[in-house]
User: Fold this.
Amino acid sequence: MDLTRRGFLALTAAAGAGAALGGCGSATPVASTGPVLSGAYTGPPVTIQYWNGFTGGDGPAMRQLVDDFNASQDLITVRMNVVQWAQYYQRVIAAVHAGKGPDVGAMHVEQLATQAARQTITPIEEVVTEIGLDETQYPADVWEAGMYNGSRYGIPFDVHSLGSYANNALLERAGITAQATTGDELEEQLAAMVEAGLEAPPFWMPNRWPSHLMFLSLLWQFGGEPYAEDGSAATFDSDAGVQALTWMASQVDKGFSPPNVAPDSQYTAFKNNEVAYTWDGIWQINDLQATELDWSLAPVPTIGTEPAVWANSHQLVMFKSRQPDDNKLMAGKAFVQFLTENSAAWAAAGMIPARSDARETPEFRDSPQAAVAEAIPSMRFLPTVAAVGEVQAQTLETAVGEAILGIADPAAALAEQAERATALMVGNLRKFER
Amino acid sequence: MSETGLRTATGAGAAAGDADQVKAEPRAPSTAGNNNRDGWLFMAPYLVLFGVFVILPTLFGLWISLHDYDYTLAEKPFVGLDNFTGLLSGDSPFATPFWDGMQATAIFTLGSVPLLLVLPLLVAMAMNLKFRGRNFFRAMYFAPYVLGVAVIAVLWRYLLDTNIGLVNHYLDLVGLSAVTPWLTQLPWAWISLIGVTIWWTLGFNTVIYLAALQDISPELYEAAKMDGATAMQRFTNVTLPGLRPVLLFVTSVTIIASVNMFGQAYLMTQGGPGQETRTAIYQIAETGLTSFNSGVASAMSLIFSVFLSAVSLAVFFLFRERTPNRSKQTALTNQKGGAA
Amino acid sequence: MSSTVTRTSTTRTSGAQATTSRGSSRRGLLYVLLVVLTLLFISPLIYMLSTSFKTTADAAATTPQWIPSDPTGQAYDAILNTDGTPVVRWFLNSLAAATLQTLLILVTAAMAGYALARIDFRGKKIVFAVIIATLFIPPVILLIPNYLIVGRLGWLDSLLAVVVPGAAGAFGVFFLRQFFLGLPVELEEAAAIDGATRWRTFLKIILPLSRPALVTLALLSFLTNWNDFLWPVYVLFSPENQTLPAGLSTLQNANAVRYDLLMAGAVIASAPVLLLYLAAQRYVVEGVGRAGLKG
Assistant:
């Protein structure tokens, strides 16, 4: 046998190329919701994967719901995988395209557009009727937010927003009995607390999470919008934006916040009974209730000209798959149905259930987040633009961080990043419209 | 530090040292045809791996860089050299973060490499002195190196925590600031990243230096002493030339490891504050795999490689064999009976 | 450099610099210096171990404790029993990946290295040149294309992704080729005269002689794979399939401020390597030294 060099090289190259480009299974995930689900699931025993990002105080409540579902019947086993939100969205796209994606998931509403554009989630209009939901059961904004390009991709599960947490004991030391509701009141209270000689500054300004959420809330309060509805431009560098960011940065200058707050430390310090005020999501409620802190929760004060607060909604979605399995699809729908019907229990996570009747229960009315639920009419959501989350992470978050750290002037930082964001958004529009 | 470092450095050494190899390849008594068959059969398993995971991706990467490539979308249109021109001219929205990343890599490399070349040498020289227990100390200094970057970074993130970290606690005890933001503010973030990297990999360079130092024949030092050479002169004329064989290797490996830094930034500072400590590799991985802009990221990696090649060539020239001196040194070494 | 294979640097008892009689106080100073350095290198690891046995509150206390005031195994308990952080799986995955890749490297690199060193076949120079050339390709160039290739093969999120692609590096081939070149040719010529085939010569004569080099390569490859971080972070997503470094990253993301958990995870990730190191440190350290000299 006399293999020539060329022959062998050709063989190796061909083998390599074939192996690489062959692959197995369909390359693109396929949309499907499977056969109609009427009543309970009656197929063979099946295990489905459920991914979400509930790593914080909301985690145990979701785990409880999953355990309850698994215990309530013997055919379906739901396995939950929790990936921190910051990595979740990229991971789930990679997983679905790798053929290793989950079946059901929870995700934030502004990500639906991105995930749909990237072919990972499936339109679920039929599922809504199959599991017995309709729009009258939900606030209009929240219901509409699950749509993208004319199709429904998400079923609203909850609404959650920023709230203002206050340390009652520290407030009392300055003679304050109720949380501020306007910017002026807040300023007075903070000054009073500094006067009263509290050991730590009263209102720590983060430069990472959730500082961009605070910025968005204030931007809306000052009458601005972060992005054009059609996704063609970033508008967070408007006057409203500059006012919002300047106010945030000024908290450091006025001595209400230390400079260079390390990530998460504003929340840890609040939890450790050191800080009087902090803005954070209502999802922290459970974590705080586990401490001995004497705290209260109220809607964020109106610093700007109109009340507004950043809000988001967790939506339930179903994923595409390279090889759709009818049984798993049916089981997924059954699980989604269970979750929507038991969403009142989700209030135990500190969330506000999206379903109106779930918010009318006595348990909910007694919960801390009921105070924030009053602000539902002023809750604002990001527009459903594909990849807006990625763009925001690369631009708006940077601008906010730099201004608060004092590295850049608010107007300049916002202008620079808004220009980049617009370029990215224009590119994305082109990309996703193909 | 990784296999990649060893690989590329070995390549440098290969090109440099190959000239020394005695080219006495044996003529096997079997026929040329048998040789061909045997040769290719022995190479085959490796070549399959090599073809699929080195050659193919290199070509594929070039191809991707010429497209607007997003693997989650159906279409990946050809864009020619737009990815490159966009990055080089600054027009692309990815240009600023990329060049910021290159700058971050440069800062880290310039900050860490000199220290990683000099400090281990000092330690190795100390360890080369006559005393008992050398192996024990050598084992201790090398120990952190066997732990991966994940363990190191998670551990040091804790030790450098502003409020509860061990480092700030001890600094406070000696009267220095108790709240240095080691990981959240510049320039501390760089100092932390560089410091931790030195702690982690100093042992590796020390061990190599030590091996080379121990190879230097003691008679050379005695001869130099008898000639009246001072300690400094002994260092310059005996130690340094004796280290030449490993200097190229150590320098290459260290530079390559620094230039490829990713884990420490990813785990300790998350590229922060802002994105100041986001190195080029970090940016490329994020752009190509987290944000799915694989075309741009491939172009970034090619531009990065050009820079790296330039640096490698410079190092190579710095340490190339300047033949006249070296043969004198080799002759001297051989004469004194030391092993070459 | 030299081609003597069996020399170990620790047989040298003399240091390079002769010491004089004032050396004893100098030596004392030296010992102090070396001990201080040792503490600097080892104490963080001790603190890591100690923290892994603290309560959550103690681990986050503003006054660090070297010895836990209330030692408890709760952190280990929590880690080992949480669904989302299957540390034992991570450990087994790492072990499997490192072992398999090491074997793959040893087999392919030994065969290829031998061919390049001893067999005269057509096209050899070109093949060798190409392989050497790739030593200069920075791995980042291959990151994204390999990710896509591995995805097409269906290997993402599986053991294959962390075993196979990494074995294609040229270092092993080059290292072993250098070593084989240094072996005396007479042995093979004698075997050939006796009628042994290439393969038998390789298997029965060359390989046994190459044990030091093979052991060095094995240790280096195992260590490299065990500690590999960038690649596994991107190609492994499900918790059950991650290796220890990627898993540690997940652990940190999910428990940013629970340092007791993080330290327990770090201990679990480092204990096996440290034990292996303590047992085999002579091989590892000397192997590295030798690699440096020969490079």
